[in-house]
Amino acid sequence: MAFEGFPAQAFTFYERLETDNTRDFWNANKHEYQQYVREPMIALADELEDEFGPATVFRPNRDIRFSPDKSPYKTYQGMFIERVPGTGLYAQVSADGILVSGGFHSHSPDQVERYRLAVDAASSGTALAAIVAGLGEQGLSVGGDQLKTRPRGVQPDHPRIELLRYRSLTASRDWPAGPDLAGRSVLDLIRRDWQRLIPLCDWLAKYVGAPQSPG
Predict the structure, then answer these.
(1) Crossing angle of the two packed helices 109-120 and 122-137, in degrees rounded to 10
(2) What gap in Å lies between CA 80 and CA 91, rounded to an integer?
(3) Distance CA 207, CA 121 (A)
(4) Is residue 214 part of a domain?
(5) Residue-level pLDDT at 213
(6) pTM over 0.90
């Protein structure tokens, strides 16, 4: 199946799911999810695989075992291409449109320690600062889990203090729902942003890596 974009029905499906997140609604409209959301997402992943690697297209069900929110279904469809555990490229469809992102999502203590050591070091830290600045110049928003104050032991005048505050680091762009997302041009939008995000993912893979296994 060739990727032909996400039709308007993909976004309206999630608008309706947001107001009626029940199994009754899902069972009555699952065919819309399959046709307008999941099948196009799988086709998109297939077309991008040769360049970026195989993607995981996530299940629509929420894990509600430990959540006070018992809504059974996610109000978005995501896919993730893992570079190393916790780091990779992501795309998501929801009522708002398409989100394209990449970076360092997990943050075990050992990962945070390696990240901060690399940001503190002149060579690797300067390289990351240049990557982040470049992403901002290309219209991507930099974010992640961040301390409100500086990390312990870091001087307030450190040249990369803002980067040192992060415990995870991502960059992303939102493409709003509309007719521009209904055709194959979406493939190029996601491809271009993922290409821009590769240097960030490569830096994180090199200096942060995967979380250490238990024990």
Answers:
(1) 90
(2) 7
(3) 11
(4) no
(5) 60
(6) yes
